[in-house]
Amino acid sequence: MPVHCVDLHSHSQASDGTLTPAALVEAANAAGVDTLALTDHDTLDGLDQAFAKASELGMRLIPGVEISVTWQKRTLHVVGLNVSNSSVLSAGLHNLQVQRARRAETIAAKLQPAGLKNALERARHMAAGGQITRTHFARLLVADGLCKNGKQAFKRYLKPGKPGYAKVQWAGLGEAIHWIQAAGGLAVLAHPHGYNMSHAWRQRTVAAFAGAGGDALEICTGTTTPRQVDASAADARQHGLAGSVGSDFHSPEQRWLALGRLAALPADLSPVWEHPAFG
Ligand code: AMP
Ligand code: MN
Ligand code: MN
Ligand code: MN
Question: Ligand 1, atom 4: nearest CA belongs to which residue?
Fold first, then answer.
């Protein structure tokens, strides 16, 4: 086990993770993680419970969030790390939460003709007060036998251009970075290889993120290949961005990925967790 095992991207039931925040922290601790960031989609709601469990276990928990962004008609995810209470951040997140609640109604209506019954009620029940995401609808499509797995549910119903897709105008790129930094946090462009973009578009995206004042690039995730790590490291060097690492863990059912199981950050990059703002 490495001296430090850092995992700076994970989800709980406050958004589309399947574990409660406390169970997530327990699982990370059992996996040997000593620094975990909880980064739920557009909410800080799981943090109090996660902090309580982390202090019980003597584990370091970094308060985080993963903000949904619309940039050039594409959706990007910007992770905020070490964010504290801030009216700017909470107001921004509140807005996104309203959008999520409205979008859930639209998605449910759009999936009814496909045979998904009572989708809104069931998605709300499944989310149990947490943010409703497309992942919840994917789980319903699988539960009703309309799709064989989540991947297929996205491919057939939930991706742009598919019958259950509903467009949302999320936060602006500069806006999300501003909210995070106003809360004393560091802004990280999440999973740069997770947007189904060409090489040229990925480079434009990283350049725009750096130009808008972003702090770091997520170099190693639970699913990145060595080539992707090399490509992202080159992008981070070119734009003077720090490097972050995070599994993007959602559920123990994702057998291909585990908490803390991450490639090492290339040695010449500055680790975001050693940044002064990290405390
Ligand atoms: P949302 O922010 O509600 O639009 O949902 C986005 C979430 O859906 C992501 O954070 C992933 O957890 C999940 N997701 C997106 N695309 C896929 C996919 N192709 N297969 C499985 N899960 C996906
Ligand atoms: Mn997710
Ligand atoms: Mn994401
Ligand atoms: Mn994520």
Answer: 134
